[in-house]
Amino acid sequence: MWDKLGKAIAKFLQFSWEVLKWALIIGLGYVIYELGGMEGTWPDKLKAIPSIILREYAATGARGAPNVNFMTILIGSSRNVQTAQRLMDDMRQKRISGRILSQKGQYYVITGSYGSRSQAEADLKRIRDKGFSRAKIITP
Fold it and tell me: What is the pLDDT of residue 128?
């Protein structure tokens, strides 16, 4: 009995390792793909890895959007304030102003307050051109 159980556990662990290994390979491949499309030197691109991961995690809408009473652009969000701050630093380097909005344990990185949709869309294009491809307009 113990022999069968040991073999079953060994097979499960081997399978789990294979799944994890492929997930890491795919994730790394995606980050390299994103880095290849960015402008700048390779050291600058490597510094951008946390913001790439944050953008993909946050701007997919998985955590929803902040409650706002004005039209703004959502760059990304995180449950970790340090991660949101790194995204703000990345924005500053690209000359994009913004702020962190905290709601219900989530930190949203937003920029701008717009009176018209056309103004917001013009800024959204500029922001996406600077590498924040998943940024989106949020309305009240």
Answer: 92
CATH code, residues 42-138 = 3.30.70.1070
Q: Tell me the pLDDT tens digit for each residue of 42-101.
A: 666 666 655 555 444 444 343 566 767 678 899 988 888 888 888 888 898 898 988 888
Q: Where do we find the tokens 């294979």?
A: 18
> Can you give the C-alpha Rg of the chain in angstroms?
20
- CA pseudo-torsion sign 62, 97, 69, 124: negative
- The ranges assigned to domains in the chain are 1-37, 42-138
What letter does residue 18 receive in the DSSP assignment? Answer: H
- Distances 25 to 20, 31, 81 between C-alpha atoms, Å: 9, 10, 28
